[in-house]
Amino acid sequence: MTRRLIITENITLDGVVENDGTWFDPTDDSEQGRELAEVTREHAAASDGFLVGRTTFEEMREFWPRQVDDGTGVTDHLNRVEKFVVSRSLEDPNWEGTTVLHGGDDLVGQIRELTAREGRDIVLTGSISLAQQLLAAGTVDELRLFVFPVVLGTGRCLFPEGTTLRDLTLAESRAFSGGVVLLRYTR
What we know:
- The protein is of the alpha/beta class.
- It has one domain: Dihydrofolate Reductase, subunit A.
- It is built from five helices and eight strands, in the order βαβααββαβαβββ.
- β7 and β8 form a beta hairpin.
């Protein structure tokens, strides 16, 4: 079975995915945080690949491996899966199980090669520019949007002006106790 490429993003009602630290906390231990951690574990169980750009990779590499008693399961997942980081400058990823994809003109071809291999899902999170590029290239099989009931009015959006996606089918909608809604769309 070939792999699917899935984009998972935390997003505000006005489309912002850039986290300024005020609206999303991946270590939230509230009831909603525990619910979101549970669905994240469900999604993680179906994947064996993690794809990010360099900035997101470096942020995650500095944060997740240092978590002790991580109840979300993210640390264990990230340490276990094959990680792919797109970067033209990163030489030593310094995180076991990481492959650097040097991108360039053939990035989409490199991603298609990864998804053509046997395996489970490859999940991209954060990495706004990379997500936008892969959406535009038509290589994304599913969008998982955790929509937070927040309007920021500013910040980087997943869908910049001019983005067109018309071939989406709603696969799931699930509401959580604190008002977050998961919307899963397939292409």
